[in-house]
Structures are given as structure tokens and as C-alpha cells.
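Much of what follows relies on a compact textual record of a protein's fold. The record below shows the convention in full:
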Amino acid sequence: DGELWLDDGTVVIVANGAVAYRVYKGTLGSVSPVFRDLMADSNLKDSELMDGVPVVHVDDAPENLRHFLNFLAQPRFDTIHPMSTFPLSYASLAAVGRIGRKYQVESAVHAVTSRLLRFFAPPPTLWVDAIRSWSDRWQWWKEHNALEIQVDDAIDAVNLIRLLDEPAALPFALYLCSLCDPVQLRDGIVQEDGSIARLSDEDFGRCVRGSLFIAQASHGILQYAIGSMKQGRCQRLRVCTPVLVDYMSRAHAAGMVAESYPLSDVFIRLNFRNPEPDAYALYSGQLCSWCKEELCSWSVTAARDIFLKLSRMFDVESDTLVGRSAF
């Protein structure tokens, strides 16, 4: 590997018999007891040589090992910390986490888990209360966390979160999985190293059942919002009140309760959903500006309540209770 071939490196690491990296034995051994044992003089005395340097073979994907060694060589594990603004790709974060765990590099594992928790365990007030459309919110959240990630990366993230034993991040990660194409969710996604990341049968089932629970809960958001309104600042009580009463009296009419919404919009204010729910579009236009704002504010309260129940909806409640947050 041209990037990670140090002319004065003291050991060569060959990944999967395909790519060789020449690095400093002392640096690698100082962070990993596993590598320290692999590179012990007693283990290297009869090893093959490359350019006069002892060789250690490992069975890791070259792409994953390259990400890890890049951070080690800088050194940049501190840049993975959740408070860092250093931009990362999800692929590099996942690679460092997996290699770090395998070779017992505690500094790397701690940095990765902290970054994962910051992204995948957002407080409800931070995620739900953001006044943005879904696309704007997703872009903002990636920039806020300096992480380049796609929604379908959540499939691999669920496996990584379980590997690193950080269950507090599971509910939101499983929710993101539920936004994926159903075939993609079932068959998995191709990783940087060519492998396929798939959910376990158990987590696939959690996604299917959880998405149904969320869809069912979302149907009641508008009714909850209208039923909670006080109209304390209403400018046209004689107009707005009959409109609200009419909606509530027809709430169970065809198309009102059963209306489907994209799961990505469940946690979005009614007036920022795209497209707007039919029932909201029908009635909100007849309300004064104060009533319309109150209606949207109560919809956020309802969405926040659903967000707090994600662990129960995805059947990871008992696990999540022992998780920790990066906030």
C-alpha cells in the first residue's frame, strides 16, 4: 500500500494475503496487546521477511485495516471523539471500531462508541424538535456530527452497535433501517470491502414489526394535536372552533385515520412534511395563524412521545435500559 508503506517501518502487516502495510511495530504494539503478542520477537524469529522486515499475516479486509492504520499513523483517534469536528465517513468509523475491538485497542473502541452514540442516540428534543423537513434534518444531522453516512448504512450500524455492546443506539438505528427499501432491508447492502452487511433474522423481524407500530402510532398525531389545543391566542374563535370540532367528529371517516405517511415524516412537524398529510392540508387552511401554529406545536409533542417509545416498538427496551448516551 503506497500510502501506508513507511520506509523506516519495522513490521509489515499483510491483510488477507493481498495488501501489505509497513508500519512501526512499537506504535502498533503500544495500543494493541493482540498485535504486541503477534509481533513479539519469539513469534517473528522464523517469520518471512519483506525488504528485510518481518511479516505478520492477518485475516482482516485490507480496506478495514487501512482505515484503522491511517488513524493510528496520524495519530487521529482523538478526531473520532464525538466533540471533534473532523469529518469522517461511516465506513472508516465502522472499520476502526471492528479492528479496534478485535485487537483490543481500547482508545479506538472508546472513540468509535462515543461517536456512534452521539449520532444514533439523539435526545428527543434535539431530533424531534428541529423545525426542518426530513431531507433538511438528515443533512443537518450529518453535518452536525461531521459524519458522512447514508440511511442504508444503518443496516451495518445495527450489527456494529451490537458488536460494541452499545444498546442505547439500537432504537434509532433500527428506525433508520425501517426507512430502507424492503428488498435492501432483507438482502443487505454491499460494503466497501465487497462483503454484504445484513441484519440478523431477529433484527429484521424487529424492523418489520417496529415500522408497523410506528405507522399505527403516527395515525393519531393529528387527532392528539387537535384534542390538546387550548386556542388561547385564537384570532377567530367563531371560525376556528367549528373547523376543529368538524375534524374531530369526522376523525374516523374513511381516509382520515387510515391515511398513510412516509415513516421518515413521523417525527416532522405537520407543516414541514412533504407532502402535507391530506387531513392537515384540508383543515389547517381554514385556521387562523395562531391556531395553525399551536396545532403544529402539539404535533411535535405527539411525535416526541412516539420517539421515546422507539425502544419498546423495536423490542429492545430491556437492552436499551443499560445503554449510555454521549450527550
